[in-house]
């Protein structure tokens, strides 16, 4: 869509190409959320021994989680896993522009189930990502953790509402101004069967108060409760405790 496009031309993008269209908004709007999530993650990882293997950043996106990990664990080697080319481009650019990240972070351009991970990892982080995995793939990830997570290691993920298939009214995701243009987003969800919701994200670009671009991108998200998480993990010999409740952090150990 170009600046000449009118609201009549606005259209919907489905989950198959979700990040093709939304990557620039993810990179623009997400840092504000990480202003609070980053410190919460850092507290969860405090004291983690990273000498036993690298820390895996699942769905590293444009690099907010990777940078937060690097700050929290200044001696850790990090494997940043990001399958989407657009997000991975932003991730690589961020790493290349930071000498500390460039010396410690390796980017793996695949999904976590296909990634060539080492025999032992000291930690794994999956922020804002676990709902992308269908139940079978999610359980496969627990199998990887059970096999590779060091005995003293820690995995951290977050569960945010909804944890059951239910509607979520539209809410603002943030607003950022870059030069003459403003970038905003809203998100709403509706049930999609017994185990998922469909998120509808509407993104708008304005210039000098004039709407120049708007679209809605839809993404399927698998939902589950903390109780189901605990039961699935127990089947792989893993335990979970609740972390920072404001961010839905879940702390997984062997």
TrEMBL record:
InterPro entries (UniProt xref): Methyltransf_25, SAM-dependent_MTases_sf
GO process terms (BP): methylation
Domain called Methyltransferase: residue spans: 55-153
UniProt entry keywords in alphabetical sequence: Methyltransferase, Transferase
GO molecular function: methyltransferase activity
Protein name from the UniProt record: Class I SAM-dependent methyltransferase
Species for this entry: Streptomyces gossypii
């Amino acid at each position: 869509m170009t600046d000449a496009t009118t609201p009549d031309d606005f259209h919907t993008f489905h989950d198959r190409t979700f990040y093709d269209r939304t990557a620039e908004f993810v990179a623009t709007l997400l840092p504000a959320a990480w202003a609070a999530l980053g410190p919460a993650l850092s507290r969860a990882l405090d004291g983690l021994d990273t000498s036993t293997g690298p820390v895996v950043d699942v769905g590293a996106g444009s690099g907010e989680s990777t940078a937060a990990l690097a700050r929290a664990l200044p001696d850790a080697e990090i494997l940043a896993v990001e399958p989407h080319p657009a997000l991975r481009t932003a991730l690589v650019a961020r790493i290349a522009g930071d000498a500390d990240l460039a010396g410690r972070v390796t980017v793996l351009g695949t999904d976590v189930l296909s990634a060539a991970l080492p025999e032992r990892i000291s930690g794994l982080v999956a922020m804002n990502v676990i709902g992308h995995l269908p139940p079978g793939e999610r359980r496969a990830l627990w199998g990887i953790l059970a096999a590779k997570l060091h005995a003293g290691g820690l995995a951290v993920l977050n569960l945010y509402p909804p944890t059951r298939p239910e509607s979520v009214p539209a809410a603002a995701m943030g607003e950022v101004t870059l030069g003459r243009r403003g970038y905003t987003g809203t998100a709403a969800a509706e049930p999609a069967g017994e185990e998922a919701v469909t998120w509808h994200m509407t993104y708008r670009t304005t210039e000098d108060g004039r709407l120049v671009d708007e679209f809605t991108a839809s993404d399927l998200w698998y939902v589950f409760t903390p109780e189901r998480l605990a039961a699935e993990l127990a089947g792989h010999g893993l335990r979970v405790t609740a972390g920072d409740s404001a961010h839905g952090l879940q702390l997984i150990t062997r």
